[in-house]
């Protein structure tokens, strides 16, 4: 059975009473506020409580956050997107007409795995497809694919060196594209 707020306060009071000094109590309260509320830091110099910034709470600077996109994808030089015996990627795009970056990413993975038979589709392969047809590259292509995976379950992106298309992704390409005008 969960503890009530009054029971919790009684327990906290007992624990704080066991500490030897006010400084120890302030340290414990400050730590608990920081850990469980994400703010309320008492400055040792002034004794005043202030709200902590998001950067302080999460421990990252703005420049560290910008680096989250990871390395820039690279062109795969030996990827033939214009095979003689199959439909080219550009022809496949013209046939399916994807409109969003998520659809474009799924289309690229589908083409690479189903039309070209690649076992391990990587972020670099998808990037190469985007470049081949002149699509604008999303700021964070990996995130674009991860959103297609998490929001619509079109892809599996747990391993970005082996991106997989799901049955829902196959249905998108085979049944839903091109989108019909409403």
Tell me roughly what share of residues is in helical segments: 40-55%
CA-CA gap between termini: 53 Å
CATH architectural type of the largest domain: Orthogonal Bundle
Number of domains: 2
Give an overview of the whole structure.
This protein has 182 residues and is mainly α. It has two domains: 5-59, no CATH class; 89-176, Arc Repressor Mutant, subunit A (Orthogonal Bundle), CATH 1.10.10. The protein has helices spanning 5-18, 22-37, 54-58, 62-66, 89-96, 101-115, 123-133, 141-152, 167-176; strands at 41-42, 49-50, 155-156, 164-165. The strands form two sheets. The protein has a two-stranded antiparallel ribbon. Strands 3-4 form a two-stranded antiparallel sheet. The radius of gyration is 26 Å and the shape is elongated. The protein starts with a helix and ends in a 6-residue tail after the last helix.
Features:
elongated, mainly alpha, 182 residues, two-stranded antiparallel ribbon, two-stranded antiparallel sheet, 53% helix, Arc Repressor Mutant, subunit A, 9 helices
């Amino acid at each position: 059975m969960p503890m009530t707020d009054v029971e919790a306060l009684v327990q906290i009071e007992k624990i704080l009473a066991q500490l030897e000094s006010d400084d120890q109590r302030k340290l414990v309260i400050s730590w608990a506020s920081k850990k469980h509320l994400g703010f309320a830091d008492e400055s040792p110099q002034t004794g005043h409580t202030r709200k902590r910034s998001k950067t302080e709470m999460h421990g990252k600077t703005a420049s560290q956050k910008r680096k989250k996109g990871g390395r820039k994808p690279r062109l795969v030089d030996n990827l033939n997107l214009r095979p003689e015996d199959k439909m080219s990627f550009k022809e496949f795009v013209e046939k399916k007409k994807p409109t969003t970056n998520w659809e474009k990413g799924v289309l690229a993975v589908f083409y690479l795995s189903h039309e070209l038979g690649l076992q391990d589709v990587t972020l670099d392969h998808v990037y190469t497809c985007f470049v081949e047809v002149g699509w604008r590259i999303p700021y964070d292509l990996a995130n674009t694919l991860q959103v297609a995976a998490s929001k619509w379950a079109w892809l599996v992106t747990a391993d970005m060196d082996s991106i997989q298309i799901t049955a829902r992704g196959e249905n998108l390409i085979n049944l839903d594209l091109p989108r019909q005008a409403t």
